[in-house]
Write a structure and sequence with these properties.
The structure is a single chain. With about 270 residues, the protein is of the alpha/beta class. It has six helices and twelve strands. It has a single domain, classed as 4-Layer Sandwich (Metallo-beta-lactamase, Chain A). The chain has a seven-stranded mixed beta sheet, with helices on one face. It has a five-stranded mixed beta sheet with strand order 8-9-10-11-12, with no helix packed on it. About 40% of the residues are buried. The N terminus is likely disordered.
Length: about 270
């Protein structure tokens, strides 16, 4: 029997869901592309999971051909096609899957199938397939699979909250954490929840936003001062792509959207 076939997998690890996992398949090939200046790239990857290849400003373009550059970020959305309600679960790997790269999940979601998907993704040899799990906040749709991921992959869990079972390290505002081969700044953004955080990489302008509300169009709500201050901090950063806790990435006018949201909020609360 194949090592990752359903019976062996379920007998070794116990999960709340008894669905049979399919045998491991060959991982799909990563699209290649070359240099073209001027914008961030978002490419969908057809298959069981989607691969988002993010090229920093000035390093890539849609439809370009050639070899993938060493300054690309590989981000897999494991739950984009999930059939149950769950958050997005992003697997971040290093560009070349070297021993120094840190395979990491941003949020754990609640879909058991992410375990099988991770086995199908090339994450390098000689290291854990998931070394870190960083939770953007404590809501169940982002955290349910955390203990299962830790059990299967031996991962360490990180969060701002002290109330989540299985957390190994408590994050603080301003901490730096490595995902893939990039450093990300932890930004505390209370509002959706008291423990909400965003993860920001300055070099590529990447923001994992969790469920922090970043697109505010109507001035009919009241927001906590701490959230407004956090949004002001985000507005001062150069952001080219946002990976939210639900839905598709925002790949255009990210900084403009944040500034417009802040303006709407302040108008609604008479803070101008």
């Amino acid at each position: 029997m194949h090592r990752y076939s359903g019976r062996w997998f379920r007998n070794r690890f116990s999960f709340p869901d008894s669905r049979t996992l399919r045998p491991r398949r060959e991982a799909p090939q990563i699209p290649r592309r070359g240099a073209k200046s001027g914008r961030v790239v978002y490419k969908k990857f057809q298959g069981k999971q989607n691969l988002l290849i993010l090229a920093p400003f000035g390093c890539g373009g849609e439809g370009a051909e050639g070899i993938m550059r060493a300054d690309d970020v590989k981000i897999y959305n494991l739950t984009e096609k999930s059939k149950i309600y769950t958050s997005n679960v992003y697997l971040v790997t290093g560009t070349w899957n070297t021993l120094d790269d840190v395979n990491a999940l941003v949020d754990a979601g609640r879909d058991l199938s992410i375990l099988e998907m991770i086995f199908d993704i090339p994450t390098g040899v000689g290291k854990k397939q998931v070394e870190k799990v960083v939770l953007t906040h404590n809501h169940y749709d982002h955290t349910t699979m955390l203990l299962n991921v830790k059990k299967v992959f031996g991962s360490k869990a990180y969060a701002y909250s002290t109330s989540i079972e299985g957390i190994d390290r408590i994050l603080e505002d301003g901490d730096m954490i490595k995902l893939g081969d990039r450093g990300f700044e932890v930004i505390h953004t209370p509002g959706h929840s008291t423990d909400s955080i965003c993860l920001y990489n300055r070099d590529d302008g990447v923001l994992f936003s969790g469920d922090t509300p970043l697109s505010v169009r109507t001035p009919d709500s009241t927001y906590e001062p701490d959230y407004i201050r956090a949004l002001e901090r985000l507005c001062r950063k150069s952001i080219h792509v946002i990976y939210p806790g639900h839905g598709a990435p925002v790949t255009e006018r990210c900084s403009e959207m944040l500034r417009e949201s802040l303006k709407v909020i302040k108008q609604g609360m008479n803070l101008n």
